[in-house]
Amino acid sequence: MSTVQAQDLVIRAAEPGDDATALPMLRASLGKVDDPHYEAFLHWKHRENPFGVSPAWVALHDGVVVGYRTFLRWEFLTGEGRLLRAVRAVDTATDPAYRGLGIFRTLTLQGVAEMTLAGDGIVFNTPNDQSRPGYLKMGWSAARQLPVGVMPRGPRSLVSMLSSRVPAALWSEATEVGDDAGKALTDGDVVEGLLRHAPTSGVRTHRTPGYLAWRTSFGPLHYRLLLADEEDPSRGGVVFRLRRRGDAVEAAIVEQLVPDVRTGATLVRRVLGETGADYAIGLRTGRSAGLVPLPRQGPLLTTRPLAASPPSPRDWALTLGDVELF
Question: What is the pLDDT of residues 240-265, one digit of tens each?
Fold first, then answer.
């Protein structure tokens, strides 16, 4: 293996037949060998997304995938209401035996070049401290730290929150509070009522009925919808899921589709009271009713131009549903 050189690899766009060797490599490289949901999760993200199938690139050696890079398609609306096509830099892995050959950089820049020619507007992501320097060297820029807000259920819950500074579990805790969001958001009347309160300013996700149904549909994530009035969805609702973080259970508020601050804050308090979660967490952009700022704790949003210029840092209006999970 030590004799393999970068020029021995084939770099090209991924094809369906690559799954046979790509999936085992991804599982092994990313520590997903024992995850029973992993392949279905990838299919949901990259094949069922209403914004489009994810473009991906592979590095092959002797016909076997040894490197993989994919970008999740996304759509934003600008402050003026124009559609901005985007992709999010997401799943990537290199077979450990082939590290040191520049596969991550090669696949990423190949994808950037081809997506630019295809007319995709921008790429965005929230890389961790380990991967961020590599992205910055490839033309990414730090846009802004996304502002996190929290609401503890009470003083004891605040202690649990502050002592659980570890990554959150990927898969959700089950709860019967509210309605199954994946089912409820296929109801046209429910979606029509809630979308009356979709954000109308800033750079925000293009929330369509298809998007809301897809975003909440993956079963192991147990997304729930809590409505202000079960008989009248137009009075607003929140989408949330419970996830364990250390010894605490947090309620991730991924959407607040509410008519006013009071309704949003009341619904978040209801989520905490009815689920028993220690605290609620979300992003304080757009409507973030009831969430108190948590200074210097949010993920760092990075962007890169493709065929368009990224929005101004101050214009972003993202929710937790736009950045958690992917």
Answer: 999 999 989 999 999 999 999 999 99
Q: Do domains 6-145 and 148-295 have the same CATH topology?
A: yes
Phi, psi of 283 (to 5 degrees): -100, 140
Residue-by-residue DSSP string for 239-297: EEEEEEETTEEEEEEEEEE-SSHHHHHHHHHHHHHHH--SEEEEE-SSS-TTPEE-TT-
Would the pTM count as exceeding 0.90?
Answer: yes
Domain ranges of the chain: 6-145, 148-295
Fold of 6-145: Aminopeptidase (3.40.630)
Summary mean pLDDT of the chain: 94
CB 106 within 8 A of CB 113: no
Residues in the chain: 326
DSSP-based three-state secondary structure for 35? coil
**DSSP assignments along 38-99, one per residue:** HHHHHHHHHHS-TT-PPPEEEEEETTEEEEEEEEEEEEEE-TTS-EEEEEEEEEEEE-GGGT
Looking at CATH, the fold of the domain delimited by 148-295 is given as Aminopeptidase (3.40.630)
Number of Cα atoms under 13 Å in the Cβ half of residue 258: 26
263: phi then psi, degrees, rounded to nearest 5? -60, -45
Q: Are strands 279-283 and 248-257 parallel, antiparallel or unpaired?
A: parallel
| Separation CA 275–CA 173 (nearest Å) | 10
Is residue 273 within 8 Å of residue 153, measured between CB atoms? yes
Number of helical (H) and strand (E) elements in the chain, helices listed first: 10, 15
| CA gap 104, 107 in Å, rounded | 5
CA distance 16 to 176: 38
State the pLDDT at residue 178. 98
